[in-house]
Amino acid sequence: MSRQALVEMTGIEKRFGPVEVLKGVDFELYENEVLALLGDNGAGKSTLIKVLSGYYQPDAGEISVGGEDRKFGTPQDAREAGIETIYQDLALFDNLDVAANVYAGKEIVGGGWRKLLGFVDHKTMRETAADAVSKMAINIPRIDVEVSAFSGGQRQCVALAKSIMWGRKVVIMDEPTAALGVRETGKVLDLIRTLKSHNLSVIVIMHNIEHVMEVAERAIVMRSGTRRGTVDLKGPDDRESHDKIVQMLM
Where in the numbering of this chain does the ABC transporter domain appear (predicted)? Predict the structure, then answer.
């Protein structure tokens, strides 16, 4: 019996003026899978992900999630379908604490007269955010500290905690290890594994093949707006798959 895709994109095309960025790309993501999307700059991988996350609308092609046809006019449409995206800049508010960032746009309002006046229930938000962060293998000093004081790895932890709370099906991560040191990169790779342990499917856009080999089960390689091929991965020491990826990227 064939494996059922959680997300399926078929014949996706996207143009910006005369430039054809995506040329009939097919893409699939399975349940509880970590999938890497690879390609040089200009390959079309970020554009494909922005189509899936509702940031761009395709000029042609179809998208289905859980077997249901979808059209995402906005990023909110994708979120409502259970797709959460963490972009490279993390989209965190430096002047807010962890709980406020996790609940940004979805604040809990207190009961009774507090609800009538629109007062935010900071206590409940901090308790639930602390629970989400505690599931991560990284140290956050305090839940009520502004994230401007955090390291790169700690900021990734906050963004991922938000994904665990709101990403019901899929989490997309755009270059999650970019500009991080060796130690923090290792922690972020652990966090990607944590997402999988929460029964989420994960798409990671990466340039570093070694990092891909550590966390992903499959890699889709793109080149010049097309899907070049797919490689099944068997772990960091799988040199055959590593060499296949390198050949597809050339």
Answer: 7-249
